[in-house]
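Figure 2 data, in text form.
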Amino acid sequence: MSVQFTVNEEPVELDVPGIRRLLDVLREDLGLTGTKEGCGEGECGACTVLLDGAVVDSCLVPIAQVDGHAVRTVEGLAPRRPDARNPATPDNLNLLQRAFLETGGAQCGICTPGMLMAGEAFLASGQAPTDPAIREAIAGNLCRCTGYTKIIEAIALAAARREAPG
């Protein structure tokens, strides 16, 4: 099946079986390995991406459902995409990524891409960054390292910086 969609604002056209998971297409066909596979059952959130701005578990989405839509992965968060000549540094991370770095919101790294994407969707929603609202926004993502406190702090920090003038 031929599918056409955008990934991180770049057009993509692939000929793949329609039942193939979005997660596998991202990682294997497109080389976007930031999206992680945790459980493969939609329970952990490690594979969270944004599909037309909505949080989805890419391990549960057949690629046929992505045809004509927009996907955003963790690689699409940074203002400039890191590569071998331009590695990810605090200078080329977005507000949320920098907040995760500063607060220690990332520990082992397995949940981090999914948490970042859920956090980015929360920030885009414009909701007030209260503790309960942030907890609800990341409820589909499991972390076994941080106890969520630093992740919640990171999202709240990014929200405060986004609202600050200048």
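Caption note: The mean pLDDT is 92.
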